[in-house]
Description:
Strand content: under 5%
CATH architecture of the domain at 2-121: Alpha Horseshoe
Number of strands: 0
Shape: globular
Largest sheet: none
Distance between the termini: 86 Å
CATH class of the domain at 2-121: Mainly Alpha
CATH superfamily of the domain at 2-121: Tetratricopeptide repeat domain
Amino acid sequence: MVPRLLAPIMVEMATPQQLKEDGNKKFKDGDFDGALASYTKALEISASDDKDRCVYLKNRAAVHLKKENYEAAVADCSEVLEQTPSDPKALFRRCQALEALGRVQEAYRDARHLHNEQPDSREVQPLLARLYAAVQKQMEDMAQVKNKVQNTYKYLFDVTMDKQKREDSANNMLVLAKERAGAEALMAEGVHLKIMQLLKSETNHEVELSCIRALGQLCLNSDTRSRQVLRDLGVPWLVELLNSNDGDRVNSAQYLLQVILSALAGMDVKGEKRANADLLRANKREVDSVMAVLTVTTNSSAMSARGRDAVIELLLKNCPYMALNWTENVLQSGGIQRLMEVASEMDGYRHESSMNITASTRTTVAVCLSKLYEDMYHDQAKQRFADAVEDFVKSKLVTPDIEGKVRVTSAITCLLLGPIDLGNKMLAKEGILEMMLVMANTDDLLQQRVACEALIAAASKKDKCKSILTQGVDILKRLYQSKNDSIRVRALVGLCKVGSLGGTDALVRPFADGSTMKLAEACRRFLVNPAKDKDLRKWATEGLSYLTLDAEVKEKLIEDRPALHAMLELAKSGDHSVVYGVVTTLVNLTNSYDTQEVIPEMIELAKFAKQHIPEEHELDDEDFVIKRHEVLCHEGVTSALVALSKTESQNSRELIARVFNALCKHQQLRGMVVQQGGARALIGLALEGTKKGKQQAAQALSRIAITIDPATAFPGQRACEVIRPILSLLHPECQALENFEALMALCNLAGMNDTVRKRIIKEKGVPSIESYMYEEHEMLRRAATQCICNLVCTEEYIKMMEGTNDRVKFLVLLVGEEDVDTSQAAAGALAMATSVSPTICKKVLDVASWHEMFRLMLANPREEITLRGVACTLNMLSADKEVAEKIVETDITEILMALTKLPPETDTRKKIIDYAEKCLAKAAEHKLIKPADQAGSDDEE
């Protein structure tokens, strides 16, 4: 116990110098995060006049370079240079960072300064020459860019010009803004201020969109330009751009605001890269101002419906601690109450202060509240969140009017769809459930509707469904008799939820036989009726999401093409509120939900204890499930899943990934998934979501990469984007099948081109792949070895093999594998490695059993392995005379001679003979054996 008590004290008492040394050690070991922490701590505790502060800053700058945090590296080096203007290391490292950022003129300035200080430096001279050429090219490009900017100004900002010319100029400006030189030239001319002035009166929709999109491109990946745009245009004006019901404009404005936040925090716009703590700290004021205005705008009655959704989505994406860590600020600034106000908004009560909302608004609020509640990382924070919600509820129930009750019920329903634990907590408050039951039993349609929705949402789990809906089931039956379709369909969903209590257990039937099918038919009538509005069809789909746990309902629905088509068309609408119902139904149809493993011994034990044993329906057998998969694929389910995958709900994304993976399980369906855009959607699902969801999406991507040419399935940059998700499956927690499919996929990807191979290495995939070369499972060993065989083509992997490790040794040993495919892959890897590296040739000879393995290759019954063996031997003989001598000392030359005598019956055999002859010729060239034409001359004498 003593060491555990002393350890924290020792860390606290560490001096800056000790922390520096610790950082140096971690840096050498490749632990850049640890090194960064040590140098930062050293700076924090060192005195301002400490002479070694510059050393800590330079060391931290070196870490930032390794982590590609170039802005932070520039900041650290600049601080050093303020005190010591000619410090060589600081100049060199800032120069490297500036060059990486594309700021070549500044980098060239530092390089010249460094050259003046160290004119004989071998590192500086090529750097100076390279930067000089880059500066010259940049100046030429800038001259061209300035002409383009002038042409843009000539037409775009003159409203009297021809409409087409203005639109073309706006598009040209957008293209210019995407290039670094163009963006800088535009900003130098104050284009953002001109855009602001133009948008006040612009009536051309295309011009308006291009201007907003151009602002987004100007700010992309540049915190400097983002700060300038914020300062000159103001946050309120930028947020006001969202105030429109035009989808394209709102999307463009939302992207602009996300780009600004991402640039200020060093995040990736797609959410694949976490915030840079140093950059976020430096830009805290700007980030806080944007987030504060967004929070206040949440429940603004002046904001458009689409704009409000965009505001909430921005909060949803940026508040979590993995992004800007702003959840606590939302709570402190009353943002939770504002979101609850939006959640309580109802179409039935409209007045001057009513908010405009879309059909998706309350669903988006539910997801946002759920994410924010999850982000409350300790019980006290969660309690403060709950207190804020309770304060809102109390404020609405202060007066006995109906509006307050309706709004509270609506808000609690939203909670039950989001942070469900908090929703149940509010539901358990004294009098809340009774109030809902009374409302459901009135004749007021609005009260009936909201109460019915709340009862349905409350029945989220089987135990709660029994306790809550048992009290309200008679009310639901009465409401189902209503003449109002809106009330009827909601009551129908409540009854469907009761009917699904048995889940997939074929023996549990809450209602009388045939009732479940009648409920399904009632849902179908709402779903396929073109006269019914989308809201009714959405509720009908949610009803089916419960009923399709029943195998008979699944089979009935899969044969009902009009109903399937109507459901999939509903999914393609892009309405977030339909996601849950459609996706859950698809999960049930494809049987892609988790099933508990059945252990025969436990079944016998349950029988003995006379307990109920769940029984799977015969219609859920594998043959029926495969047929359902095929029908769904041919009906275009992939297009629907692609549309649904844009949801921010992590749980829904997991369900979508499950359906995709279930379809990709079948080789014959993978082509259709790719053709309909499934591969691209899967990449997004694999990068962001729940752990299980990302795993399911990654497995689907692996299956696609195994069957379909990766160049076709993942064109362009997409091939690199799938690598990280697939590598995540090479984890001990994953099943052997997932490991195997990931290795096979990576093998195919590694066979594409050098860019992909380098990306696998950059993502630190090599150790994970290599670990499976030593697995007991033969197929895992084979797949890993084949993958390494493709990676050997890269210079980076060759350097890794040349290092102080056993990589070469293990390849040599794998040649002796009984599995011929593994042996062939290992032999191929050795042949390629020895062809480019004399060092590897020498390392081969360090393996004790190298002679035995070479004999095994050369005398192998499989000609493909023999061919690789003679190629490897030729490489060894060509590498070095000393290596050649060791080979000739063995009986390998006799085997080579025997190979030259083989009859050339096949093309492979001819190549073997040719290589064997070249091997003997190379040995003769080293004068280790006599040339073939002189062989036998001693005997003649």
